[in-house]
Amino acid sequence: MLPVLFHAGPVSVYTYGFCVAAGVLLAVFLMRRKSGEQGWTADEVLDAVLYFTLAGFLGARIFYVVQQWNFYAKNPAEIIMFWEGGVVFYGGAIAGLLFLWIYSRYKKWHSLKLFDFFAPYIALAHAFGRIGCFLNGCC
Prior knowledge:
Elements: E1 4-8, E2 11-14, H1 15-38, H2 42-67, H3 69-74, H4 89-107, H5 111-136
Antiparallel strand pairs: 1-2
Helix pairs in contact: 1-2, 1-5, 2-4, 4-5
């Protein structure tokens, strides 16, 4: 297993985080290229992806904290310490999709069209994350 990809001075670059970031960046690159085919500008898609990603990470952390509530009830300061691990894909998917639905209503876009557009790119980014998870040794 390879939990730490490399060290740059005092900074450690973790394989899991690197893989997730690479997957998201690749998905963003591909989505921006395909956005015009759906009638959206590349910047509109970038905005949606940025907010979706933030909502997803927040939801992933909240889901984990809820699952481990016995620990976090006794250690509430550690709830915000996401860098110590503790995100759950299901929570991220739920929060991200809920955000997309709300965002589509706000922008007056067809929500199912937006879901269809995002679906393969979510799978792509998640696949990169799973590779990182495997290399981390936790799965």
